[in-house]
Amino acid sequence: MENLIQYFPGYDIRKNVRLADYTNTRVGGPADWAFWPKTIAQVKTVIEELHASDRALPITVLGNASNLIITDDGLRGLVIFLTDLAEIQVVEQTITASAGAAIIDVARVAQQNGLTGLEWAAGIPGSVGGAVYMNAGAYGGQVDSVVSTIEVLTRTGEIKSITNADLAFAYRHSAVQETGDIILSATFALELGDKAAIDAMMEDFNTRRASKQPLEFPSCGSVFKRPVGYFAGKLIMDADLQGYTIGGAQVSTKHAGFIVNRGTASATDYIQVIRHVQQVVAEKYGVTLETEVRILGEQ
């Protein structure tokens, strides 16, 4: 597969793509190849062809690349960005959204149609696929409470539907993390609500986010999972790590659970800050901070 552009004529495939241009952290090395499919049929064709090839490439599937860090060495093989697959459909009290749709847009569509259940997603910057993959949540809500089914493409090219019960949802976990299936869409089962109450709740959540989170800087969102019995941000703050900086990556002075790019950060800076925070918190409090953010690429 020396030249994917010739192998898949007419597809939006590019060579040696700078991934920092597409991540929320604004860091990350190059991808050998990047692909922006316009249809599910295009995704299926590429996956089937590469699976059948005796020179198959590593494949990484991304949406908005919001809750991840890509290393400075980048990603080998093919990176598939699903952001052009962003259709959102409403049928009575359900919303079906393509994997590349922003979860915040799905929440807005629910709001416009007087449907309640997705207010918590009003300010989450990730895609539908990413939200399902990691069972995203905020302010007491989670994906697992509203998703009824998802549609996936297996790595052999089969399209199938998976129900909520078979997704093994847990805190920041879904079964897709083990299967490697590519999420194509998700259907959300919502309830009719009072539109004024929905509007007020979403406005409240967005106001709280703006006041507490460092939205003025690039970041990967919440870096660490919540340890049982603790709050990661408070542990980091109590360890006097707010403002700790390596290169251009800094533990946010506004919210200790975030690491921001002050403008010149590399992925290595980010990873070194993460490791230092984990080490100090473990030494001071005996608590292991597990990353919520995904780190992709060689370290």
From TrEMBL:
Entry EC number(s): 1.3.1.98
A single Gene Ontology CC term: cytosol
Main localization, broad class: cytoplasm
Alphabetical GO biological process terms: cell division; cell wall organization; peptidoglycan biosynthetic process; regulation of cell shape
SUPFAM superfamilies (alphabetical): FAD-binding/transporter-associated domain-like, Uridine diphospho-N-Acetylenolpyruvylglucosamine reductase, MurB, C-terminal domain
Reactions this protein catalyses: UDP-N-acetyl-alpha-D-muramate + NADP(+) = UDP-N-acetyl-3-O-(1-carboxyvinyl)-alpha-D-glucosamine + NADPH + H(+)
Pathway info: Cell wall biogenesis; peptidoglycan biosynthesis
Pfam families: FAD_binding_4, MurB_C
Keyword match NAD: no
Family to which the UniProt record says this protein belongs: Belongs to the MurB family.
Function: Cell wall formation.
Protein name: UDP-N-acetylenolpyruvoylglucosamine reductase
Lineage: Bacteria, Bacillati, Bacillota, Bacilli, Lactobacillales
Gene behind this protein: murB
